Automatic annotation (TrEMBL):
InterPro entries xref list: RNA_pol-assoc_fac_A49-like
Main location: nucleus
Protein name in UniProt: Uncharacterized protein
Record's keyword terms, sorted: DNA-directed RNA polymerase, Nucleus, Transcription
Amino acid sequence: MFALDSDSRRLTEEKKDLLISYVLVLTLYADEFRTDPSDIARDLRMSAVKLRAHFEHLGCKLVSQNKVTMATLPVPLTFPRLRQKRRR
């Protein structure tokens, strides 16, 4: 599942993204589906901006409260519906 790339002995970018997603899901679960992205960004040694995109891909809403941005996962989780093109 997380096999290393045979040529460079490093994880591929897709596997890194998958691991980051798993870490973020566990963080949300542990913090009752509400967490501060800057804390986990510091732990993962990533920028908060890059981590913000990962939270959005998971379906989180980013809300600013008291000058602190919080990522919250709304329950029940609903993803935006795709708009279908109208036939002419």
